């Protein structure tokens, strides 16, 4: 059951579903899947997990990651693991998925409640990212892996670039993306410092929900945090 305002804009539900199908190039056999993939939690009163996109988003995150990793692996047979990881992270970043969804026109297909509309562009960006992943999962379930692969590579394939493999890796960004996929956020704190002012060393830790994931030491707080993030990425 939807809330008092289950859409963001003037389009009827049927028009939103049809818009998403046109964008994806697929008419869904199970339109309940499609509707769920487009529905933000704010737009439903009864929080049935099947009525909004979070469960599909969970599956879609893995499906998108698989196809991008597979394509990078196939395109660049000489690249080591680190380079392939940087390519994947650059493509599946939340901000990238949101931008792609926006450019495809999926913003008009979203089913969002009044409360979420008040969050502004930041809330919409998150919703677009989640919807892209949820739609991918819905397509995967409705039409199979090959249809989902074609969709992912059509929309994200052009963003796969070997240049990303050569870019300096930012451990904090990598850790942020890894944890974001799990619905978690890292927190950094400086645990200690030692040495004279001209040769100071800082010790930083990165935690999630109070659990230490990594420890790092550096000559600046920023460097220490980066080393802590790198340790956490290695551990994960």
Summarize the structure in short:
With 236 residues, this protein is mostly helical. The chain is 57% helix and 10% strand.
Residues in helices, as a percent range: 55-70%
Low-confidence stretches: 1-8
Query: What's the number of helices?
Result: 11
How would you describe the oligomerization state of the chains in this entry?
A: single chain
Description:
The protein has 236 residues and is mainly alpha-helical. Strands 1-2-3 form a three-stranded antiparallel β-sheet, covered by helices on one side. Helix 3 packs across helix 4, helix 3 packs across helix 8 and helix 10 crosses helix 11. The longest helix is centred in the middle third of the chain and has 24 residues. The chain starts with 12 loop residues before the first helix and ends with a helix.
């Amino acid at each position: 059951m939807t809330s008092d305002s289950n859409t963001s804009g003037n389009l009827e539900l049927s028009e939103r579903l049809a818009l998403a199908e046109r964008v994806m190039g697929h008419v869904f056999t199970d339109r309940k899947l499609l509707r769920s993939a487009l529905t933000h939690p704010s737009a439903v009163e009864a929080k049935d997990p099947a009525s909004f996109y979070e469960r599909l988003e969970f599956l879609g995150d893995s499906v998108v990651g698989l196809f991008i990793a597979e394509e990078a692996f196939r395109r660049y047979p000489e690249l080591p693991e680190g380079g392939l990881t940087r390519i994947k992270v650059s493509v599946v970043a939340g901000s990238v998925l949101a931008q792609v969804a926006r450019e495809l026109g999926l913003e008009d297909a979203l089913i969002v409640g009044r409360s979420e509309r008040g969050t502004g562009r930041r809330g919409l960006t998150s919703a677009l990212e989640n919807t892209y992943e949820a739609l991918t999962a819905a397509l995967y379930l409705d039409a199979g892996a090959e249809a989902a692969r074609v969709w992912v590579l059509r929309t994200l394939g052009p963003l796969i670039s070997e240049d990303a493999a050569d870019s300096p890796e930012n451990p904090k960004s990598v850790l942020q993306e890894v944890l974001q996929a799990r619905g978690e956020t890292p927190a950094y704190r400086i645990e200690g410092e030692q040495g004279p002012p001209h040769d100071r060393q800082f010790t930083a830790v990165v935690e999630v929900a109070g659990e230490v994931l990594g420890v790092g030491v550096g000559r600046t707080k920023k460097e220490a945090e980066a080393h802590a993030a790198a340790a956490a990425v290695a551990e994960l």
